[in-house]
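Give me structure tokens for this 113-residue protein.
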Amino acid sequence: MKKAFLSELIILTLPAFFFVSCNKAAPHMNGAPYMNNAVITGPDARACICCGGLMITFNGETRPYTGDFRLIENSGDIGITDKDKFPIYVKVDWKEDTTNVCNHIFITRISRR
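Here you go.
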């Protein structure tokens, strides 16, 4: 009798732990702050092996090709195109593109300021 009760208790309680642990919201869903304020200065029209995509700066520079800018590897996925009016002020989360030597970045979350 005690074994049956203990088995039923475990069977009924165990799923509750899974449901509680799976309901935790991801950081971008619960209003977590963005990593950086940034400025997307425009498309990169240079013709080189590591060129192309959108240029982004994290130091407030608004002119394309000026200062320390990075290139966005996944620029087609972030909802900004060549037809937008630049500069575009944004808040972003990003990570380094470690798959190549071109020093590009991936935008993981973006919002216009």
